């Protein structure tokens, strides 16, 4: 009676008899689907947080700055413009309108500033400079409270608001206010009239109206002109130089415009980013917009000129996100591959248990399609139930679900059993057709061998291809980091390696059999004989070694990155501790005190300035300028684990006209005739070597010696102190007396480890490793269960021949353990091998924040994975032994 | 009493039922008989008559519901698992219908397996295997694996393996079941011959009339009872 229809009772009956196994398959589906479905939204979220953090950490480097064209007024008869504030606000609106839409959406409304260069104060002693600054934030100017005097007012009454000055009129007074710190530093008080002049000796007359304190010193607006709150002092060519900034109010703004030459006034609109709105997905478009904004028409055409490092900040963030994404993909591909293989193993076990009924159905005339369909109904149910559970969990915990990764899991879960079932049924029916003729049998066997060799060569070729792709392209790149070929290299490598081991195993077993041939005992001999039959079973071995390899790879990745972060944090801090303050000559003394403190091995002070314009004959860039006592800095590097920079010794040399400098990064043309623009001074440099990466700058780094720099006439007061040694942190804290900010290496390391990308990767590596271990154990158990009937039969026969209980156990353990140990050790070796071969292409340094690839760390405890597998085998073999030794042999003669 | 040699096999009141209450199958009921040392006994009966059940009980592969089996003076039915294991190692051996050879091992190595299980010294084992190979006429096939041997040759290896440990009692359940009539006869003739030369007692379950003709005695079994 041919049967092609699906038989309901058969399905439910089978469901009941294999409930445990089906539940297990459902569980594997659920866990894998959950993990893979969560991966995409979690990665997206982590990427967004990483971009957000990068932009936030960048501070003003991430700002987009519009510089407005210079005001122009008739020098013969200058007219006071009482509506200047309105004009400025219109400018701000105009600039805002000039922003591309996407960029505009992620920037805060612009803060308008009008600033002057440092004006030399004339009658209050030498070396005192004051910049004038007007700041207009959209939510009002930064709030201040006057502790003396009053806010700056207009220098005319209401009726004179629009007066016109003749060209020969004297300087027009501008009312300004000083912060308490600035008033102290300059020795000024409310009511003082201060004559001043600009660099071209044009006179400016200032009136101090009052002294204020900031209501919120952390208001972003203060960051735009830091000297408003924190004046700086330093010694140049033996002279004390004090500089500060004074605040201009909306009322005195028209006077500023009237009293200061037009070309001394710089008008800017500063748009700072809103980090939470920065998403990874849009970062590339934003970057493009920033770039095109800057290259659009500029000041030359009398239009706004745009300036920003946001593109660099975003690019840096995106590269790191893309590196992390690529690394995550490497881990996920391995996980997915193992999950799929475990599902196939489970399906094999299921079909093996049903061989009888499936074969019988076939013999009774059921079509292969019908047999497959019956199994399909069941596996689809299992896959759907598992997927539903997995997706529901992800939905609940993560919120959204990524669809692409779980698809292969569902396909394999649904199709493995029906396909294997149909193949089994087809074989059973075809068994009778095995050619009786020996040559025909041999031809058939050769065809099978050839197919296997072709398959293995195919895998090897793909593994090579993926490896080459990884080496050439790395995992960074691709808009969505979607280079699966490169990301799958580690997995393919493991599969190819496992296939090689599979090839080597039978000859090795044969050798062992030969070696045992001449012995009296039977255990090793019989184990080898059993292994000859079973060791060639590819799938369990493949799962165990690929899972172990990927697990090793993942653990090594996490460990290497954590270890690399130690170096990265050290590089970023620049020592065990760093003190950053406003530029202050007193830091030289602070550094000396720190260096003399107990437990401090070395200390150095430096000026670290970002965004310094550096131009060469053929190129220009914004660089990080580091002005440091080269000897002290070299000692500091020697005393710490930081990479040494022997070329620092070259900085002390007399370079003649040009200041000897070290340069890191930037394009090649930058070294040629490099000139820095520093505080209105042009400093020509002579690049004599490569700079160390001071504080992990994303921009090129220029390092010069303090003395050589000062000798060129440029003034750079230190704002940074680094110290190394066990007592460094407390010494710096004590010496700083609470001013400035102290960054400790330990805190930095913690912060880095908690940063979104590294912590996300570590979590992923841990989760993936645990799942891989679970899969490896499942593979061991499923394989043992699949082969149990055949093994039981041969071992029962040996029992009938007089095998002792004790020996039964030893044979069982030997048979089950050998392939697992071989596969696990191979996996371990393959994992370590691929870590060494591939970590260099995974851009790990992007995550660790180092300058080069980190040193590979493989923790010793990774060997616990094979140990865990051995334990699993011992448990399985003990259970099987208990069952076998109690089994009555009555069926033996009937089999 | 004193002059009569003790039988090699003494079966008394042997009963084995399968299943419970409504569907109970009395595979053997109250069976008693003796087999003298050196005898080759054929157990014959229709399919389902209880031949395999009897052989299982004789060899200690199964336990009866009632009755006793003594083999070479040992009460098999009273032995624990360890005792049964020792009995299988030293006293009783089996020839399987499906041969049950280990595919990875050569004919000679298969024959040597029982000797390995008792850790017989290598030299002794090798000379015994060589002797048995001669005995079953497979000297020229010693290094062939089961897949390279014909069915009859495989069963000859099976018989040699059963004899390797010099058992007192050899149990064979339809040893020729998988062989064509001619080969089956040859194998039976061989069994007859080796039983004589090795001096073992043999119990062979069979449907085959030719086999019966080679036996010293035929135990007829029908519906779980032995007559004759
Ligand atoms: N495990 C079992 N459970 C229930 N009944 C059984 C079992 N084993 C055997 N039987 C029944 O016991 C009876 C005797 O079976 P046995 O295998 O001994 O017969 P047999 O003479 O060896 O038959 P054959 O010539 O076909 O091998 C049969 O009716 C069989 O159905
Ligand atoms: Mg039978």
Automatic annotation (TrEMBL), chain A:
Residues of the ABC3 transporter permease C-terminal domain: 767-886
Keyword Membrane in record: yes
Sorted UniProt keywords: Cell membrane, Membrane, Transmembrane, Transmembrane helix
Annotated transmembrane regions: 330-351, 371-393, 405-429, 450-470, 490-513, 534-559, 761-785, 816-839, 859-879
GO MF term set: transmembrane transporter activity
InterPro entries in UniProt: ABC3_permease_C (IPR003838), Macrolide_Exporter_MacB (IPR050250)
Subcellular location: Cell membrane
Membrane topology listed for this record: Multi-pass membrane protein
GO cellular component terms, semicolon-separated: plasma membrane
Top-level taxon of the source organism: Bacteria
Family (UniProt): Belongs to the ABC-4 integral membrane protein family.
Protein name: Putative ABC transport system permease protein
Provenance organism: Nocardioides szechwanensis
From TrEMBL, chain B:
Gene Ontology molecular function: ATP binding; ATP hydrolysis activity; transmembrane transporter activity
Provenance organism: Nocardioides szechwanensis
Protein name in the entry: Putative ABC transport system ATP-binding protein
Stored PANTHER family: ABC TRANSPORTER RELATED, IMPORT ATP-BINDING PROTEIN
Matching Gene3D superfamilies: P-loop containing nucleotide triphosphate hydrolases
A GO CC term attached to the entry: plasma membrane
CDD domains named among the record's database cross-references: ABC_MJ0796_LolCDE_FtsE
One Pfam family this sequence matches: ABC_tran
